Amino acid sequence: MNRRTFLAATAASSLPWYGNPRAVRAQDDSRTFATPAEAARSPREELAYVIGVRVGTAKGKPDYLATIDLDPKSPTFSQVIHRLEMPNAGDELHHFGWNACASCHGTRGRRYLILPGLLSSRIHIVDTADPRRPRLFKVIEPEEVVRKSRLTGPHTVHCLPDGKVMISMLGNEKGDAPGGFLLLDDQFEVVGRWEASNAGMEYNYDFWYQPRQGVMVSSEWAAPNTIRNGFRPADVQAGRYGRRLHFWDWETKRVMQSIDLGEAGLIPLEVRFHHDPASSHGFVGAALSSKIWHYFKDQGSSQWKAEQVVEVPARQVAGQGAPVPGLITDIVLALDDRWLYLANWLHGDVRQYDVTDPAKPRLAGQVWLGGLVGEPSAIAERKMTGGPQMLQLSLDGKRLYVTNSLFSIWDDQFYPDMAQKGSYLARIDCDTVKGGMSVDPRFFVDFGKEPGGPSRAHEIRFPYGDSTSDIWT
User: Fold this and answer.
1) C-alpha distances in angstroms, 390 versus 224, 226, 266, 400?
2) How far, in Å, CA of 18 to CA of 24, rounded?
3) Which domain holds residue 135?
4) Total domain count, the chain
5) Which of 16, 52, 139, 362, by CA, is between 20 and 30 Å from 344?
6) Position 468 in a domain
7) In CATH, what number is assigned to the domain containing residue 165?
8) CA-CA distances (angstroms) from residue 30 to 7, 99, 106?
9) 327-371: pLDDT as tens digits
C-alpha cells in the first residue's frame, strides 16, 4: 500500500475510533517506524504541514496550519491545498509536534498534532485522521495551562514513550525565566510539570531525550518577557540570554550537570541527539555565537562534555556598524547520523556537513536563499525575503525543506519587508553519497500570496514523521 492509498483508506469517516485519542493504537501504526533505517526506507513524503503565522502581517487574523502538496505527480504540486485556521488571533504558532512518534511504535499511532502559541500560551490539538484536511480537535486555554503548571511560553513538543506529551516552556506565569516542562496526558489534559525541580536552570528552550543514556538535554533562549521586546544587545550584555546546556537525569527528573558554553556559546537553541538510541553524541547550534557544539559523554565517565566543532565567522555588511553574525537558528541531523544541516538566518546560507566523525565536521555543501550577505537569490522569479531559518529533512535525507520566518517581532527588526511580502517554503536537493546541495527550482510556496493576506512560514512536519519528530528508544 502506497501512502496515497493509505491516506484515503484512513479518512475520518472510515475510522470507528475517530475523536478518541486513547483508541489510537496499533491501527495507525503504519505512520511510525521501529528503527531509523526502516524510516529512511519508507516511501517519500507527499504532504507537509507548515505553520502560517499572521502576527504582524494580517492584523486581527488568526494563525493557521497549511497543508502542502509535495507530490511531483500531483496537479496541485507545490501548492497549499488546505488551511486550518485557529480560533483566536495573536497566538504566534511556532514549533509543534506529534502525540506519538517512534518512541511509541507498536503501542500508539501518530495522528494528533500539538500546536502551541508561543505568545498566547494557548495549545491547539489538531486531528490528522484525514491527512489532507486536518481538523481542530481541542483547544487548551492559557488559563488552564497557568493554573495547573504556573508556566507560559510553550516551545518544543515531544511525545514520551508512556503516551504523554511534553512541552518545553520558556517562562513562569509572570513571563520570567526559567520556565520548565509541561505534561499532557493521552487525552490532552494538562497533568502539570514534568520536572521534579528546575534547580540549576536559568533559561529554557529546546530539549531531546535519550533514555538508553538515562538523559535528557535542554538548551536556553530567554524569558518570554525578554523576547517580546525584540532583540536588544543590552539584554545580551545584561545576561538575559542563555549560554548553557543542561543534562537531566531521566529517572529523577532533575538537572545532574550543566555546561556553560561561555561567550562562544551564546543562545544555544536546537539540540539534536544522534538518532541511534545507543549513542551519546549530539549537537547544538549557538545562534548568536554562530557556532556548532558537539556534546557527548566522556568515555569511562558519567560526565558530559561539549566542544566547539563549527564556526561561522561574522561578516561585514554595508550599512551595518559592526560585523554581522551568521545567526545559526536551526540545525537538523539526518536519520543515518551522517549529515548535519544548519541555517544562517542573517547571512542567508544553508550548509551541509559530513559528521561521520562528530568531532570533526567536514563542510560538503552550501546554498544561498536570501539573507544580508549572499548574492541576491530567487526561485520562480520570487526574490527571497529574509534568510533561511527553519529546516526539515525528509526521512530518506534527500530533500531539505526551508522556511524563513524566525519570530514575528524579530522578523520585523531584521527583515521588515517580510510583514508585507510574506514568507516562503523552498526545497533543497541533497546528495547523500558524496555531499552537495542544489535548490530545486520547481518547488516554491509563496506565503506572501495567501488568500487571507501575507503570512510567515515557520516549522514543517510530515504525516509519517521527519528528522526532528522521532526519538527511538
Assistant:
1) 20, 22, 19, 10
2) 8
3) 3-461
4) 1
5) 52
6) no
7) 2.130.10.10
8) 11, 15, 9
9) 999 999 999 999 999 999 999 999 999 999 999 999 999 999 999
